[in-house]
Amino acid sequence: MAPLIPLAVSVAGSLGASAGTASAIAHGMATAGTIASTVGSYAGVAGAGLSAVGAIREGQATAGQAEIESLMAEGQAEQERLRGGEEARLRLREGDRFASRQRAAYAVSGSKISTGSPLLAFADTALNTQEDVFALGQTTQAKSGMFRSQARTFRQVGKSAKSSGMFKAGSSILSGISQATRSNP
């Protein structure tokens, strides 16, 4: 705006305007420039404010999504725990049925089932069943624990997103104020 002021004074003088008129025109242009600069500064601060609100909302949205994902992971952990319990129950039942068939087969053959090889076979069957159930329990615990760990991670992501949104908002506001003070000293 400043380079235009001498030009305006020169044009006003060549059109026959008095020096006072030319000075008034120059003063008006300078005032208009100041107003425009002030309006620009306020617009910059307002833009920074809107950017800050957007950053906060973005952080809240990300945190909300992370909370949903953490709830889903917790649900998966519970489902895995229930599935593992049911699978173990079924495996015990299967082991009992197998042991019953073994006892029936030995009884039909006329073998005494309370001693010797039949007794060792029953013990072996029971041990194998218990080992299978134990292994299922270990696998179930590991899978369920993995899902619970994911849930904790999602919750931490949500907390970080909220904090990040606040930091971005503060940065936007400070940047807007800094630009406004530079352009309108």
* Helix amount: over 70%
Tally of strands? 0
Give Rg in angstroms.
41 Å
Distance, first to last CA = 16 Å
Mean pLDDT: 81
User: Stretches where pLDDT falls below 50 for ≥5 residues?
Assistant: none
Shape descriptor: rod-shaped
Q: TL;DR of this structure?
A:
With 185 residues, the chain is mostly helical. It has one domain (18-183).
Task: Based on the model shown, name its key terms.
mainly alpha, 185 residues, 92% helix
Note down, in words, how this protein is organized:
The protein starts with a helix and ends with a helix. It has three helices and no strands. The longest helix is centred in the middle third of the chain and has 91 residues, at 19-109. With 185 residues, the protein is mainly alpha-helical. The protein has one domain (18-183). Helix content is 92%, strand content 0%.
Could you give the topology of this structure?
Layout: H1 4-14, H2 19-109, H3 116-183
